[in-house]
Every structure is written in C-alpha cells, then in structure tokens.
Predict the structure.
Amino acid sequence: MRPEDLLTTTPSPERLAEEAGRLPEPTPEQVESVRRLLAASERAPAETEWPPILQAPRSKKDSRYVEPPTSHRPVVGPLLVTAKRAFRLAFQPFINEMLRKQVEFNEAILDSLALIYEHQREESRSQVAWRREVMARLAALERTTPEPAPKGRSRRS
C-alpha cells in the first residue's frame, strides 16, 4: 500500500463532522472509565538499564577493538602473539578509520532496537489494560443480557 492510497477526499470532512455530531453523548461513567483506562496506559518512565536482550550486542558494538591476541601453539605461539601485537600497534589508526562507520551504524541500530523494545513493552501494557476493560465490559453485558428461553422439543414422525 502506498501513502497516497491512504489519503481520501470522500467522505468530506464536513460530512464526517456532521455524522460525529449525531453520535449520542456518553454517560459520565463511560467518560470516567475511559479516563481511568487512559491514565493506566500512560507511558511509564523509561528504564535506565538496557534491555537484557540487548546487553550482549551492546558490549560488542565497537568492532574496532578485539580481545588480546593469543595462540594455542606451544612453540611458535609467543612469536605469533608478538607479531599480532606489532601488527595491531602499527595499523590500529587505519583499522579505527576503516571501521568508524560500522561502529556508528552499530550504535544507531542498538539505539533503534532499544527504542523498539520500549515501544513494544508500552504497547503490551496498553493491550493488557484494554483487554481487562473489554473483558469487564463483556462480563457486564453477559450479566445484563437475559438468558434465552429454552427451545421446545420438536416432534418428529
């Protein structure tokens, strides 16, 4: 679906306002019920701690720096570790520059994921509140609706 498909000129805004004017006024109890529901679903204060699911990626977002070099080879291992350290020391500025945009991207993605996570939690809380309200209304309707009369037995020949 394209954005221009969502825009419409029919019905006109005036007609919509006219139809909305015909709606009955809600009772004060209904208004208060909606106010309580909206107050319950208001945005909670954001967590200062990162979501648990994003803790591990957050610790790995800066790909410019790696763990200290190691080697499992017993004889040439110390030589390899020394060579790796020398290589890193000599080329670290170039490595940092090459990976700078990747690090910025990683940070932006993690921030976006944290925001999506918070929005999802907020929506989940709202859904729970709305579900409780709908279930309460349904229970109230079921209590006020008269039971249908039992149907008579049909006679078959």
Q: What stands out?
A: The mean pLDDT is 82. The CA atoms of residues 52 and 117 lie 10 Å apart.
